[in-house]
Design goal:
This protein is an alpha/beta fold and 342 residues long. It has 2 domains: 171 residues, Medium-chain alcohol dehydrogenases, catalytic domain (Quinone Oxidoreductase, Chain A, domain 1, Alpha-Beta Complex); 135 residues, NAD(P)-binding Rossmann-like Domain (Rossmann fold, 3-Layer(aba) Sandwich). The protein is built from 10 helices and 15 strands. The strands form 3 sheets. Strands 3, 4, 5, 6, 7, 14 and 15 form a 7-stranded mixed β-sheet that branches. α3 crosses α4 and α6 packs parallel to α7. The chain is globular and about 65 Å long. The mean pLDDT is 93.
């Protein structure tokens, strides 16, 4: 098969600070070596971590002048010698964490794209096919690009060592990508959903995608107790905790004894302190580090079977990647923000 030669457009983050440091550059299309594939990147999506890196607020920082974004989807246009996992024409997305194929996460797996190595905000990417998964055929590339981080994180939060079951209840916070995915996936599993939000407009949207009950936390500051009340006083079986210190006390009020807080978010840095006795006899905690390739493929099977469609708020062209970052920072979105590379 003929090699893909020529140039491509990439966006590199020269240094942390602001969107002004996102620079579009022209580079040679990378050469495929034995055991590699070339992906024509069709779409990417943004996560909070991408904004945190831009603002120099990401734990551990990032290497300078990298191509950002951990989440991308596209079509394989060239395969190297010895590749058996995929063929030309396959539609794929990259796994968030390199080399975490299954089992428990290890420290060596915690080097996602965009912080330690070049990410997906480019037109072509050479990659080991073991780091890719096939995406459901009913999804657009923009929809598929939202799966790797937010989708797999939500899936892991609902499953993990102790999966939720039909009839259980999960509490989700807000209307960002992980929370919206958690609602959609939970309903596909037969799990009841209580969601929180800040406005009646967003409450209606949350109900449209499956939330059984929605609490406006501006009107009900003690929303943890309200969530518990909505379960008949038993408490929820899981909280998908995407905010952090500002909400953890209310999340603890909502959860049933012996059940789980899935700790995901660091959207807040300050809040009420918790101590040992806030947790003792109450709930277990589990920190979610997205998930493995097995998690990704298990999730995709359900998405394919249920013909589930991810919720995308807006799609920006590649030339307007900076505006996509600014929209993410505005927190006015519902669901995911994608970038089209077409």
């Amino acid at each position: 098969m003929a090699e893909h030669k020529g140039t491509m457009r990439s966006i590199r983050l020269e240094k942390e600070g602001s969107v002004e440091n996102l620079n579009m550059v022209t580079e040679d299309i990378p050469t495929v070596q034995r055991g590699e594939v070339l992906v024509k990147v069709k779409a990417t999506s943004l996560n909070y971590r991408d904004l945190a890196m831009l603002k120099d607020q990401y734990p551990g920082g990032m290497h300078p002048n990298l191509i950002p974004l951990s989440d991308g989807a596209g079509e394989i246009v060239e395969v190297g010698e010895g590749v058996r996992r995929f063929e030309v024409g396959d539609r794929v997305a990259g796994n968030f964490t390199k080399e975490w194929f299954g089992g428990s996460r290890r420290p060596s797996y915690t080097e996602p794209y965009g912080s330690h190595s070049d990410g997906w905000l480019t037109e072509y990417k050479v990659i080991n096919p073991e780091l890719l998964v096939q995406v459901p055929s009913h999804l657009t590339f923009e929809q598929a690009a939202t799966l790797p981080c937010a989708g797999v994180t939500a899936w892991n939060a609902l499953h993990g060592p102790s999966p939720l079951h039909a009839g259980d209840t999960v509490l989700t916070l807000g209307s960002g990508g992980v929370s919206v995915y958690a609602i959609q996936l939970a309903k596909a599993m037969g799990v009841n959903v209580i969601a929180t939000t800040s406005s009646e407009e967003k409450a209606d949207k949350l109900k449209d995608i499956g939330a059984d009950e929605v609490i406006n936390y501006n009107k009900t500051p003690n929303w943890g107790e309200k969530a518990k009340e909505l379960t008949g006083g038993a408490g929820v079986n899981r909280v998908v905790e995407v905010v952090g210190p500002a909400t953890i006390q209310q999340s603890l009020k909502a959860v049933a004894p012996g059940e789980e807080l899935a700790l995901i978010g660091v959207l807040s840095r300050t809040g009420d302190k918790i101590d040992y006795f806030d947790l003792f006899g109450r709930a277990s905690t589990r920190t979610i580090g997205v998930g493995s390739r097995n998690d990704f493929e298990d999730m995709n099977r359900m998405i394919r079977d249920k013909e589930m469609v991810p919720v995308i708020d807006s799609v920006f062209p590649l030339e307007e990647a900076a505006q996509a970052y600014e929209y993410l920072e505005s927190q006015k979105f519902f669901g995911k923000i994608a970038i089209s590379h077409e």
